[in-house]
């Protein structure tokens, strides 16, 4: 069995977060969804658990970081091409996200990202396979 990754993120309003990520084209596993959490499907083995803050807090002893004021992680996802990055980030902006950084085009690598409604940072990266040796 391949290793799977489940990124757990606290959210203030689960319904609002689901609506936001649905606008970006993501789907959710109904089997792992209730009023406290949902499982967003990012890829074959990549999932993001969106947990309402009180439920997220039940798994930790630390305070929940305010992602609108500080950063602990940047969730980076690969993309097939530059155009798909621009398309997804523009969808995110239209759905209420902000873009804390500008596009980075280094020739061999292109990236751009957004800050979601709860302040979590998402980065999309395309690496030109012809430049990888």
TrEMBL record:
Domain VOC: 3-127
InterPro entries per record: Glyas_Bleomycin-R_OHBP_Dase, Glyoxy/Ble-like_N, VOC_core
Signal peptide segment: none
Gene3D superfamilies per UniProt: 2,3-Dihydroxybiphenyl 1,2-Dioxygenase, domain 1
Protein name: VOC family protein
């Amino acid at each position: 069995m391949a290793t799977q990754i489940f990124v757990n993120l606290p959210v203030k309003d689960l319904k609002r977060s689901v609506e936001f990520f649905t606008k970006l084209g993501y789907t959710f596993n109904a089997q792992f969804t209730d009023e406290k959490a949902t499982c967003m499907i990012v890829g074959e083995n990549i999932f993001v658990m969106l947990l309402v803050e009180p439920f997220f807090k039940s798994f930790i002893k630390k305070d929940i970081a305010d992602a609108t004021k500080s950063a602990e992680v940047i969730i980076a996802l690969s993309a097939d091409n530059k155009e798909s990055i621009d398309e997804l980030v523009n969808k995110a902006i239209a759905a209420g996200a902000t873009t804390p950084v500008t596009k980075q085009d280094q020739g061999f690598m292109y990236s751009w990202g957004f800050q979601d409604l709860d302040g979590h940072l998402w980065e999309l990266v395309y690496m030109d396979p012809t430049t990888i040796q």
